[in-house]
Each structure stands twice: as structure tokens, then as C-alpha cells.
Amino acid sequence: MLDALTVAVAVTALALAAWCGFAAYRDQPTKDWHFIGMAVVSVLALAQLAVGIVQLARGEKAHEGTAIFLAYLIGSFAAVPAAGFLSLGERTRWGSATVAAGAVVLAVLEVRLYDIWGG
């Protein structure tokens, strides 16, 4: 895995969590700007998914196993989009809180991915 990409995904996810958490604190639902932020984080997670699959295809191995690595890789890609879709159904402050929680989950998954790969 690319360490810089892992850090970039985790940092942008935490920034999104802070932003949406602040919106929830101010009693605001997710807005268009939040979805743009989710798209940026999701594109970075998609890049990481592609890099991880390419590295596995080249024959590199994760220290804790390929299946668990793929599960975490796919889960990290799906965390923020899933939270975004859930926030569409909840147009209150709790929609913003859901996205904030999903972004924190993504940051934690990034740390775990780093450990699984052998960092």
C-alpha cells in the first residue's frame, strides 16, 4: 500500500468528520457542499482500492492475509458513500452526524488497513 495515500484518505476523512460534526452541532442537515466533500473522500478511497488490487495482482501479499485485506479495502471504499445515502433519508442534524460517524469509521479502517498490510 502507498503510505501517503493511506494518510491522505485518513486525514480527509477526519476533516469531513469534523465538518459534518460541526454541521450536526449547529443543527444542520447535510448540504450540497458536504456531498462534494464526500465525493473527494470517496475518490481517494477508490484510488486506494485500485492501488490495493493492483498490488495484490502483482503478487504482493498482505501480512495478515489477502481475504481480510480485501474485506477491509472494500469496506473502506463503501463507508462514506453508505453514510451519504443514509443521510439523504434523514434530512435533520442526524444526517450530518451519520456522515461524521461514517468518516470516522473510514479513518479507523485506514489505520487497520495499514496494520493488515504490514505497516
What would you say this structure looks like, in words?
This protein has 119 residues and is mainly α. The protein is built from 4 helices and no strands. Helix 3 packs antiparallel against helix 4.
What's a quick, concise take on this entry?
The protein has four helices and no strands. It is mainly α and 119 residues long.
Defining key terms:
single chain, 119 residues, mainly alpha, 4 helices, elongated
Please state the overall shape, judged from the principal axes of the Cα atoms. Answer: elongated
Which spans have pLDDT < 50 for at least 5 consecutive residues?
none
Helix content: over 70%
Order of helices and strands: HHHH
Total count of strands: 0
What's the mean pLDDT score? 94
* Main beta-sheet strand count, sense and barrel state: none
Tally the helices. 4
Strand fraction: under 5%
Assign the structural class, choosing from mainly alpha, mainly beta, alpha/beta, alpha+beta, or little secondary structure: mainly alpha
Rg over C-alpha atoms, rounded to the nearest angstrom: 15 Å
Distance between the termini: 9 Å
